[in-house]
Design a protein that fits this description.
Blueprint: E1 2-10, H1 15-32, E2 36-42, E3 50-57, H2 60-72, H3 74-83, E4 90-98
Antiparallel strand pairs: 1-3, 1-4, 2-3
Length: 107
């Protein structure tokens, strides 16, 4: 099992929009494409314009296949345009892939 940490930095005043899209749309599309959301968070202390979340994958092949299907889903693309027509909701995103260490309860 590998885990993908993703962080999106919302532009000022847009974190609520980003979180709303995650709650109202993204989670549903993740489920549609067999993507497993471990959890999602916003910062209480630190950079409070960030949305963080973790996805779980069996392996890199599964990740590649499911992201490709999700990203090319015409219904998802329509939601993206509808919820962020000017493309200014977030300024950047970051992704890291993690493997649990031997002592991790997630191993």
């Amino acid at each position: 099992m590998i885990y993908e940490y993703r962080r999106y930095h919302a532009n000022p005043g847009r974190l609520g929009d980003l979180v709303a899209r995650m709650n109202e749309h993204t989670v549903r599309f993740y489920a549609k494409h067999g993507m497993r959301l471990v959890g999602s968070w916003t910062s209480v202390i630190g950079n409070t314009n960030d949305l963080h979340y973790i996805l779980a994958w069996n392996d890199l092949n599964e990740r590649q296949e499911r992201w490709a299907a999700f990203s090319s889903d015409p219904e998802w693309r329509a939601v993206m345009k509808e919820t962020d027509p000017d493309g200014q909701m977030r300024s950047y995103g970051q992704s890291e892939l993690w493997a649990p260490t031997e002592c991790s309860p997630l191993k």
